[in-house]
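Researcher: Following up on the earlier apo prediction. This time include the ligand. It's fe (ii) ion, with the SMILES given after the sequence.
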Amino acid sequence: MLKCDITGRSTCVGEYNDFVHYFRDRYSKIREILSRRLNSRPIESLSKSTTGREVSLIGMVMDVRTTSKGNRVIELEDPTGMITAVIQKESEVYEQSIQILTDEVIGVTGTSDGNGRLFVKSLLWPDMPNQTAPLENGNGSALMLSDLHVGSRYFMADAWQRFLQWINGEADDASGLASQVRYIVIAGDLVDGVGIYPGQEKDLEIMDIYDQYKAAAQWLNGIRKDIQVIIAPGNHDIVRQAEPQPALPEEVQSYFRKDMLFVGNPAQVTLSGISVLIYHGRSIDDLVLRLPGISYAAPEKAMIEMLRRRHLAPIYGSRIAIAPEHEDHYVISRPPAILHCGHVHTVGIARYKGVAVINSGTWQSQTDFQKKMNIQPVPAVVPIVDLATMKIRKLIFA
Ligand SMILES: [Fe+2]
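Model: Understood. Below is the ligand-bound prediction.
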C-alpha cells in the first residue's frame, strides 16, 4: 500500500526561514493550479504603464478587512511584491469576497490604478477539476471511522461490540455488506487522551494514556483478520499537537496487530487503487468560525471549502498550530477520490466534483460538556464506501 505523510520527515525547527519556505511552497503549489485557468502577471510588473488596464494576479491573502465605507480591502502578496485589492460594496463579486480567508492563495482580475491598487472585477479559487467521478476504480469496500475516544466514560463499548459482531460475520448481514469490507480507515482520536482540556479527568474511565491505547488495541484487534486497518492520529492522541502529526509512536503501535498501518495526519493512502486523503479535521473549527453558512451540523460543507481552496487548513495559526515544514503538506495537489475527516463528531457525506467527502462522526456519546454547549454528536454511525461504484451508505450501530 502506498502512503504519504510526515512521519520521519519533519524538517522544521520553527525558525524565521522555515516560515518563509512554508509559505513559498504553499504559494507556488497553489499558483501552479490557478495558472491553468488564469494568465497572471507578477505584482512587481504593475506600474504607471498599467494604469487603467485589466490585469490578473495570483496572490496570498495577507489581510482582508472591510472599510468604514463598506468596501472590502485585501492585501495580496506574491514573491515579487504586494498590492491592495479593492472590492467595492456595489461590485458583483462583493458577496463572493465574504469567502476570502487570510493566508489562502487566490486569483484576482481587475483594473490597476498604476499606484499599488487594483479594483477587482473577478475572483478565482483554485478548486477541483470539473470531473463527475474519480478516474480510479477499486474493488471491495471501505469503512470510514474516527474519534473512538477509547478511555472516555462516554466511549460506546456496546455499540462497538455490535459493530465487531457485524463485521466479523456473527450478526445478521442480509445485504452481504460486511463480507465486502476490505479496509477500515480511522481518521484520528483513537483514544480520549489525558490533559487535553481542563477537568478531563472526570470524563475518563481509563486514566493512563498507554492503558487507553491497550484498551483500544483490544477493541481493534478483534476486527476480522483479512481487513486492512489504517490508523491516523488526532488532537487527542499521544503525538505532537502541532500539525502535521506523525504516526503513533512504535511503543503504542506494538499493542496492535502487526498488519495494521499507522500513518500521520494528514496522510494520503491508496486503497485498491482509490486515493484517500485522511485529515483529522481540526481546521473545521476555524472554517466554522470564519465562513458564513458553515456549521458543525454539516461538516461536509467545511470539507468542500477545503477542496475549493485546494488546502486542508487555509487559515494559518488560528486554532491549530501548524509547524512550518519546508513543504506545505496541506496543499491538495492531486485530487483524491475520497476526502475523509473526523474531529467534529458529526457525520457528513457529500460528493463534490467527483470527490467523495466523508466526515465519520464518533464512538463517544454526548458528554456533559457537549450537553452544556448544546452540541449534538452523531455516534456509532459508519459510512461505508463501495470502492467499485463509489456509492456511500451509512451503517448505524447506536
Ligand atoms: Fe479531534
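Model: Residues 285 and 379 are 19 Å apart (CA to CA).
Researcher: Noted. I'll compare it with the apo version next.
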